[in-house]
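>> received
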Amino acid sequence: MIIGTTIFRMGGEPAYSPEFPRGGPAALFSIEVLAVSDSPTLVATIQTKNHEDGTWTDLAAFSGMSTVGLYTKDATGLKQLVRLKYTFTTTDAADAVRFFVPEPSWRPLE
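>> returned
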């Protein structure tokens, strides 16, 4: 079994996860970077919107991910729908990252 998703920088356009319904107004998001090519830097941005909204809003961003490891980001103020946007801050079209995104740890606001 192959676990994870691999994305390449290629032309530099963002890649997006499928949208999913929120499980609470706040959550801890995790991304486990499994492998990296040469020296890419991947940024994941948590985006959110309500069904009636026309555009997505950037809510929080992970720090640049350039090495294998576990990265986490806490986010509050989630609307009805959530997705992740992936962008590279590097310029090599061959830059690639393999990663796994588990389900967020949803929680109510305190």
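>> The CA atoms of residues 26 and 110 lie 9 Å apart.
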